[in-house]
Amino acid sequence: xxxxxxxxxxxxxxxxxxxxxxxxxxxxxxxxxxxxxxxxxxxxxxxxxxxxxxxxxxxxxxxxxxxxxxxxxxxxxxxxxxxxxxxxxxxxxxxxxxxxxxxxxxxxxxxxxxxxxxxxxxxxxxxxxxxxxxxxxxxxxxxxxxxxxxxxxxxxxxxxxxxxxxxxxxxxxxxxxxxxxxxxxxxxxxxxxxxxxxxxxxx
Amino acid sequence: xxxxxxxxxxxxxxxxxxxxxxxxxxxxxxxxxxxxxxxxxxxxxxxxxxxxxxxxxxxxxxxxxxxxxxxxxxxxxxxxxxxxxxxxxxxxxxxx
Lengths: 203, 96
Known about the structure:
Helices cover 30% and strands 18% of the residues of chain A. Chain A is an alpha/beta fold. The mean pLDDT of chain A is 95. Chain B is built from four helices and no strands. The model of chain B has no long low-confidence stretch (mean pLDDT 88).
């Protein structure tokens, strides 16, 4: 049991996955030298090098397209969209390539990639950096969507996402990065594929 | 064949002169890596393979509606049950 933060739990999941599997690579804007817009990938480039932690130019279609190709040809890429609001830019790569390739090739090929991104409001990030677009993902057959609500799930669900044979969109909430909580290395809070009620809403 | 009404015959001819397939052929022949007979045979094999695939697809029975959920996710992982169940429920209620 470790007291940590949501941000640190995600970083730990990436670090552990990269140590466990040499095929795991990261690609995105500012994921390397800068350490991620929200500091999630801090220091990973020092541990794993620029070949596995790839600072991409500001082109979301290039980032996600490269990840789709890498996943098809044997790597397990973690692509990062700095904000989920940029998903409109990658809808072809995500909906037409990542999500449909297994179906279009009769099950002969999979796209085992994770698209990490973050959404949600509450940080005065303005209209193009504050949206909650999970419903877009839910309506695309072939994708799986993960939204961790706790520190423990931020770790475990990302590790599980990195074992999936199909593309997973891992949607973090920008308001949760500083959330403190307990990481239980033995078990997640939410079972894979199941909702978990943390706080009941108003009825 | 695309009738390309949006471009002139001259522009199209210019493009055909730069056709990468034709360029690759002449380059391979020029470098002595393949002769015309080799390349013709590759073209013929590819065309025959496509013809066989087309004939197979036309002769195959039309896929059943239930197959629309196959190969959407890897079979080792949970299938998208809610959508499939919903479709089955909707179809069972459809007037005959």
